[in-house]
Amino acid sequence: MDPHLEHQLQALLDKQAIMELINAYCNAADRHDNEKFRSLYHDDAIDDHGSFFKGLAMDFIDTLPDIQATMEILHHNVTTVNIKLDGDKAEGEVYIIAFHKIRTDDGPIDLLIGGRYFDKYEKRNGVWKFSYRAVDADWANLHQPSIVNLDNPIVRGAHIGKPGREDPSYKIFDLLQWGQR
């Protein structure tokens, strides 16, 4: 095979693996699947959620059960993704729109955030994982009280997403299972 073509093919494979990593992160967040979260980061990776948390990603994941306890709905949507490869290292700027329905003492609130992830990835032992992830908020829209209405006749009878293993996807899928990338 032509060396230039082989290089281009490897770059496509690497970018696809990184896209699958990014998408797995969103799934793990939305399903509160912290076992899957652990598999996405290298053990020495850093997670930077600003004043919320900055440190080892594994320590951040340890705090997630408490944070997730009030999250009735999480829904991450990846939009624009820019990835630059350099051998077994890469950087990515990932645009995100994330919806949160959060239980509070005053009733549920909705938080819609548009932002970006500033990522660094490394391929170790042939596997791409996060070595660094920082969260950026470019805009936010807050509704207090929540305007989510899953009892509306338009959605009545539809599968309703839930955090954790009670999500309908785990009953429907055989290949996309809890804790798997």
Structure report:
By secondary structure, this protein is α+β, with helices and mostly antiparallel strands. It has one domain (3-172): Nuclear Transport Factor 2, Chain: A (Roll), CATH 3.10.450. It is 29% helix and 41% strand. Helix 1 (3-31) runs antiparallel to helix 2. It is globular, with a radius of gyration of 18 Å. The mean pLDDT is 94.
Question: What is the topology?
Answer:
Blueprint: H1 3-31, H2 34-40, E1 41-48, E2 54-56, H3 57-68, E3 71-86, E4 89-102, E5 109-124, E6 127-143, H4 169-172
Parallel strand pairs: 1-6
Antiparallel strand pairs: 1-2, 3-4, 4-5, 5-6
How much beta, percentage-wise? 35-45%
Q: Order the strands across the largest sheet as they lie in space.
A: 2-1-6-5-4-3
Write down the domain tally. 1
Q: Describe the biggest sheet?
A: 6 strands, mixed
Question: CA-to-CA gap between the ends?
Answer: 31 Å
Calculate the mean pLDDT score and round it.
94
Low-confidence stretches: none
Percent helix range: 25-40%
Give the H and E element order.
HHEEHEEEEH
The coarse silhouette is globular
Number of strands: 6
